[in-house]
Input
Amino acid sequence: MRYGIHYILYLFVSAIIFAVSSCNGESSPHSEREIVNKSTLSKPKLMALPNKVVHPEDNPFTPEKLKLGKLLFYDPILSGNKDVACATCHHPSTGYAEFLDLSIGVNGRGLGHSRRFRQPNTIPLVKRNAPTILNTAFNGIEIGVKYQPSSAPMFWDMRTEGLEAQVLEPMMAMEEMRGQNFTKSELMVEIVKRLKSIPKYDSLFMVAFPEDKTGITMENVTKSIAVFERSLVTNHSRFDQYMRGDEEAISLSEKEGLELFTKVGCIDCHHGPMLSDFKPHVLGVAENSKLNTVDSGWMSQFAFRTPTLRNLRYTAPYMHNGSIKTLQEVMEFYEDITFKKSINHHVAQGSIDSLAVSGTIRVKDMSRIISFLNTLNDTTFDKTIPKEVPSGLPVGGLIQ
Output
């Protein structure tokens, strides 16, 4: 065997087999292992995603909400100019993210790499990279803590909590979906007015929210889309299968990458079922040259929330502003951080997060860690697209 007695002992020490809760207090039918940082034999840890999704008490799952939410997700009627849908920048063909560093929202045409502004144009680029919606049902999840979906951190700067609140933000952002013809309050009134004028939507809202006599409201719009987004889960990656006990789910080199991932300190920020601590960290990432304004992030401290490492094949380019193109370059960036040098002149030298500085990643480790990261990809998510939406507008916005 390649690993011999050392690797066998490591598995016995750092992989604890136990019946794990699904992070909501319910028992799971699977046995799962728990990978811990072997330098401390304590937290932080890695674990498979739960088999079940927890919904907020005030927005329980129903098939009717899911159906409505999916139609709304693809319908550009929610945007000021009726040209952008949620799916425009979060399309299933690109893993509910997009292969752009910065999104083009209002007044754009095309999908992913082919998306361009229509001319004339006065709309700026969206200032941050569009993260995938996959697994946002588990944002903020912690091992051994009852999951509270209503308090889940959202966005790179964690400015909202819960998917219901997150859904509204892109609609109200001028460069994303609102455009220049409406104020935020005006657009909310306009969206409800538009939806009420469509008999099909009137019927769908009545069925999805039978207890709500008001029917179509912005609150019910966001609740429906949140239910749909919580259905976009990828909890059967090869990593998840391995963590549930399938030794053959990942290769020996990928297991070696997992050991290195733990050893060099990646796990210090990328842990738990989502491989994220969901906390803000200052890394000194370079500003995206396409932007005319400085992005100071969370609390104006140039800190950004740790992203999940799941489904990285869909989320390139990387970092909060898409300024790093490949995983190899991400690895090299973290190696450079250990020298405590900021490449962002707005971030003071020596102010890089201590957890990042303490990492020990080196060139010889990078390919094996990337090999492990590939086990976190999972293509078993809903890729179906409605043939039409009740408004009659182009499905997904102007993406053709």
